[in-house]
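Quick sanity check, Demethylmenaquinone methyltransferase:
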Amino acid sequence: MNKDKENHVHDVFESISNRYDRMNGVISLKMHTRWRNDMMKRIDFSPTSNVLDVCAGTADWTIASAGHLQGGEAIGVDFSERMLEVGREKVKKAGMENVHLVHGNASQLPFDADSFDVVTIGFGLRNVPDPHLTLMEMLRVLKPGGQALCLETSQPENVLFRPLYGFYFQRIMPKLGKWFAGTDKYEWLNESTMNFPDKQTLADWFAGAGFENVGYCSYAGGAAAGHWGYKPGRKGKREGNMCDTENQDHIRNDKI
């Protein structure tokens, strides 16, 4: 089953690579960039940080991270070579020499343990065959005390908003994909979004993978969520910034 999912998702992204960025803007009403920028406010960047962007796709988050580095390196990894080709054109256009894009699998990251200060994943965790394994891989390649961040679709908690959310992803979004991108491949986005867990469950997955000080915040009424956690090994209390949204940060309660 997992291999079938991986092959299917790979086929989807290989086929939509040249239209992916355009459709991202249409589907999220261009809010995804604001959400990513808000998540980046809480990243513990230093000029020499080494950053890994998992499921990097066309490298938007990779490039954004690289802009905070002087001497550090931002590496993006993705299993779709065609998505990476689009990303390489962006990197070339931006003239960034500290960005490197690597073909690889999120379930078996091609990097040594304790290699990165920060690991990000944006709208990719729901697409991997085993999200738990991917989270454990992210933890493995982080240095002790390193930070992981995830931006992903979620499940709205408001009972009035939830039907509208479902209607949009099940009825409207596939049609948008067909009209703007000329393909029905975006039906996969509906499937993966509606089957992905809510914020608290994903926070539990982070903790289950071994992350500590796990927290999360909501975007667009819960249609998307940002999560973060740290690899054990760094002393001192961490306090993140509030999300620039209608919802405040939530810290996972291990007693729940």
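Posting the structure with no commentary besides this: The longest strand covers residues 142-153.
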